[in-house]
Design brief:
Blueprint: H1 3-22, H2 24-30, H3 35-58, H4 67-85, H5 87-92, H6 98-109, H7 125-140, H8 142-147, H9 158-164, H10 177-201, H11 206-217, H12 235-248, H13 252-259, H14 270-293, H15 299-314, H16 329-341, H17 354-372, E1 381-382, E2 385-386, H18 389-413, H19 420-431, H20 452-466, H21 470-473
Antiparallel strand pairs: 1-2
Helix pairs in contact: 1-3, 1-4, 2-3, 2-7, 4-6, 4-9, 6-7, 6-20, 7-11, 10-11, 10-12, 10-13, 11-12, 12-15, 14-15, 15-16, 17-18, 18-19, 19-20
């Protein structure tokens, strides 16, 4: 690993995030947080710029990246960005504990949405905005954004793109990786602008609309309100958020192709069809379950709440309009299963991804057929194309690794939480970048009661999940550090 090159590029990430942090001072000024808060935010941004600038100066020189360097930049980049991003919480006193600030920041940048804050509405507006902004920046990846900037520094970005882009599918829309990053961010910005406008038309203030949009298109789930989207008893607002959560959970390259005129692109994708059908079927089952147990309830509202929560959990957004932890057992079981699913490959969603689940299921059926017809030549196919055996084995290994890590971290978290339901949901929720869990970590609760060491373990889970496990695990391998 070329340590000097790695940390030279990490320094640009630190400075970029520090500049973004400084913009929150304008929000504090606009909404009257007071001079003290403004200066504290500017001080945190200045500290980040100073650290990034010093690191840049002492590591300058020619930059040549290998695949190993790409993994290192991604991992160290996220760690450093998480540490610097915690400064506004610490400087303003919004979160005085270092462990809590790191947890909240990592939850933001990884778009997990887990929080330790009990009363979000008391925070200064600039800090609330920074909290949401971290999710928007992390949604497509701070590093992917910088891939579009790296060519100006004379650096190729393919090694970083391979390690950073979420999901097993890495569609390059153009031959140049920088142009691909710009096109993906163009789609991301378009969704952001459109949703903000629609939410304002539906009755939200600009501040509420932009914050909820940042946390929707990034599938993050932070909200300026303690009750999340439950603060707004509006079918229009909930419906708009549902639509954009669904769009954020679909492969962004499909959105680009749709905008270029390929109107059948979604229907031709087996992953997208499965993703939509699963959410609709599960929402229908939960609605039936709710109506069966609450016959005097409004079936329309029950379907709206069921659909919202199913979409929120499937896309790993984590918004809440109802407390699913008090739903009947079948509904809770379905929600728990959805914690594993995730959205589509190439989206901002976390989790296993629908693509991986489809490939694993097809491989299981292929093996069953081979038991009956040992001489047959059978291949796993997706969208009328054969999936290479090495990709199938890689997806299978990833899925098994994900489940194994859920088991391991579930057992670890039993030392910190009162019951196994909370411990297991904490593990799968943080690894899948979902946010809320069950029991004492349900949608109306938070992670504040966990010991500092437990919070740092869960923050590590968030990083593992956001960087698709192997990007971080390869750094823990002794072979990685051999020359």
């Amino acid at each position: 690993m070329n340590s000097r090159c790695v940390f030279h590029l990490v320094s640009y990430l630190i400075m970029f995030v520090s500049v973004a942090m400084g913009s929150c001072a304008l929000v504090s000024w606009a909404y009257g947080d007071g001079l003290r808060v403004i200066l504290q935010i500017l001080s945190s941004a200045g500290t980040g710029l100073l650290l990034g600038g010093a690191l840049c100066f002492f590591t300058k020189g020619d930059v040549n990246l290998s695949r190993k360097d790409g993994f290192a930049i991604v991992t160290f980049g996220w760690l450093c960005v998480g540490a610097v991003g915690a400064l506004p919480y610490l400087f303003t006193g919004a979160i005085p504990s270092v462990a809590d600030a790191l947890f909240e920041t990592m939850s933001g940048f990884t778009t997990t949405g887990s929080t330790i804050l009990s009363d979000i509405e008391l925070l200064p507006r600039g800090i609330i905005f920074w909290r949401s902004f971290t999710q928007w920046l992390g949604g497509m990846g701070v590093l992917l954004l910088c891939v579009a900037i790296l060519p100006f520094l004379g650096v190729g970005g393919m090694q970083i793109y391979r390690a950073e882009m979420p999901g097993p599918s890495k569609d390059r829309l153009t031959p140049r990786i920088g142009n691909t990053a710009k096109l993906l961010y163009g789609v991301y910005l378009l969704l952001t602008v459109v949703q903000t406008g629609l939410l304002m038309c539906a009755g939200m203030t600009f501040f509420d609309a932009i914050n909820h949009t940042f946390c929707t298109v990034s599938t993050g789930g932070f909200s300026p309100y303690n009750r999340s989207l439950g603060e707004f008893d509006s079918t229009w607002i909930h419906s708009i958020v549902i639509v954009f959560m669904v769009l954020a959970g679909i492969n962004f390259s499909l959105h680009f192709q749709f905008l270029r005129g390929r109107r059948d692109v979604y229907w031709r994708s087996a992953e997208t069809k499965t993703y939509l059908i699963v959410m609709l079927v599960v929402a229908t089952l939960i609605t039936w379950n709710l109506v069966s147990h609450q016959a005097d309830g409004d079936a329309g509202i029950q379907f709206r709440d069921a659909l919202f929560q199913v979409v929120s959990i499937t896309t790993t957004t984590g918004f809440a309009t109802a407390d699913y932890d008090i739903w009947p057992l079948l509904s809770k079981a379905l929600i728990f299963i959805l914690l594993f699913s995730g959205g589509c490959a190439g989206s901002t969603a976390g989790g296993l991804k629908i693509m991986r689940s489809l490939v694993v299921c097809k491989e299981v059926f292929r093996q069953i057929k081979l038991y009956m017809q040992p001489q047959a030549v059978l291949k796993v196919r997706m969208d009328r194309q054969s999936v290479a055996p090495n990709i199938v084995s890689g997806i299978t290994a990833f899925s098994l690794c994900f489940i194994l890590l859920v088991v391991v971290f579930s057992l670890i978290m039993t030392f910190y939480l009162g019951d196994f339901a909370a411990a297991s949901s904490a593990a799968v929720s943080c690894l899948g970048n979902v946010g809320p869990g069950f029991s004492e970590l349900g949608p109306t609760m938070n992670y504040a009661g966990i010991a500092d060491s437990g919070k740092l373990i869960l923050a590590f889970c968030m990083l593992l999940g956001r960087l698709e496990l192997f990007t971080v695990l390869v750094m823990l391998s002794p072979n990685f550090w051999k020359h």
